[in-house]
């Protein structure tokens, strides 16, 4: 990219002494290192040489929890009824059809869809490590490398959360499709994960799939691996009551207590879902500074329930957002759903402000993925931002000063017009510049799995 790129946004959501606020006529300059060198509100008309961005500029959205291959399930899992567990059987069939080349094609298209939705960074909770039956590829990290390359091709950042997955349940060996997920034990997982390499657009973290998938005695190994590297550590937590019941039967404690006892919780850790918690669980999560990643569109799609997000936030847990199974990919819908689900649960309104929900999807989401220098429009931050149109049938009518409220409570992925990552224009006028026919790419990649 040129030495300096200058963008001029009609409006931008900027840090402010009294809290983030929408400012008009904002110049944003990005240097050759992909970082913002200056942000100037009230700058006057768009100057010559600047790229004009009509609408509202926001920090890039962070999708803090993704399983890229689940995108192949969209619509197919809506036939009939079923449960989380029958949905899981369908998911296993999709996983069985993937190899590194097919995964590269699918993930590239999925990450391009994310870019079109305003997402500049994804946390990929990756456990599809090996070939069918559990055989190792010549490169044991071929599947993870495909995801890192896919993010590069789609022009977004990735934190590859390499996931330890060793058992099919408490004390049960992996079977069938799960053999692809397992390294045998946590030491073998750590050895393989240690060979993963980051890149300018990619960082490496770790994940515990769940307390049912990693024996208690091996949780410490994963936690220590992440601690030694100062890496993010994510874990599925209490998504289903069946997991809680099985953990109590096997260990006499809740999943949250089990994780706490083995050093998994802490300020670098994100607990995903956290749907079915006791009051003690909430205290443990808050006292350890653990982040909570809510995935409302997946949690409602799978009929998981409405988690205690407001209770957790009030106790002191940062909240982030993810699209998880990609029932939809729309970060604004995730933010909106967090508030609206709580309204349904409590029959009262106003649990989060629009500013707080945008922060969950931007600064807090990036921090949870190990990108603390992203998620805000200010000098020194990564030049990662998106632009929402304010003149569509969904967003037109409200004054620009209410841009945060429009973004959260009215806008959707279809209203994203531009995406800039590291100062580079990735989406322009609603078209992905690297994967211009994203819909066809998705159709082809998913069709190849059938």
Q: How is this structure best described in words?
A:
34% of the residues lie in helices and 22% in strands. It is α/β, with parallel strands linked by helices and 450 residues long. The chain is globular and about 65 Å long.
Largest sheet: 8 strands, mixed
How would you classify the quaternary structure?
single chain
Strand order of the largest sheet: 3-2-1-4-13-14-15-16
Shape: globular
Radius of gyration: 21 Å
DSSP strand content? 15-25%
Which regions contain 5 or more consecutive residues with pLDDT less than 50? none
SS field, number of helical segments: 15
Into which percent range does the helicity of residues fall?
A: 25-40%
The termini sit apart by: 40 Å
User: Would you tell me the overall average pLDDT?
Assistant: 96
